[in-house]
From TrEMBL:
Protein name: Arc/MetJ-type ribon-helix-helix transcriptional regulator
PANTHER family xrefs: BLL4998 PROTEIN
Taxonomic superkingdom: Bacteria
Coiled-coil regions listed: none
InterPro entries given in the database record: RHH_8, Ribbon_hlx_hlx
GO biological process, one term: regulation of DNA-templated transcription
Length: 134
């Protein structure tokens, strides 16, 4: 996977840490346990996700979330429209609504949208679906 693809599947977050916690992280970096602060934070997050993996998996199944990357194209929505179906999209990870999806098509075919992670869609589609987004 190239760097551009990897960056497209990540989301930047900002956190506030206490100064003592930050100092301890810096000490571990200085001692060579981690490459940098980001490496420490990613490792800590992965450790917690691993510790709670069963809960995440069971809850995602129970709540019918699609885990990973979910790509939704205009063709997908047109097919749903032709079938007389309205979609309830539930994603855990990344939900990508293609650039060829118009706000009108999204409104006609997407009944609800719940994303835990990141939603990538045009600002017009996001605005159109705002009232249907949890």
């Amino acid at each position: 996977m190239d760097t551009k693809s990897r960056l497209a599947e990540t989301e930047k977050i900002t956190i506030n840490l206490g100064l003592v916690d930050l100092g301890q992280i810096d000490l571990l970096v200085m001692e060579g346990f981690f490459n940098n602060r980001t490496d420490f934070i990613r490792t800590a997050i992965r450790t917690q996700l691993s510790a709670h993996a069963d809960t995440v998996r069971q809850t995602a199944i129970r709540k019918t979330f699609v885990m990973g990357v979910q790509n939704i194209s205009a063709a997908d929505l047109i097919a749903a429209q032709a079938a007389g179906t309205r979609l309830h999209i539930r994603g855990l990870g990344l939900v990508r609504i293609a650039d060829d999806v118009t706000p009108a098509l999204a409104m006609e075919t997407i009944a609800s949208l719940e994303v835990l992670g990141a939603l990538h869609a045009s600002s017009a589609v996001k605005k159109a679906l705002a009232s249907r987004t949890n």
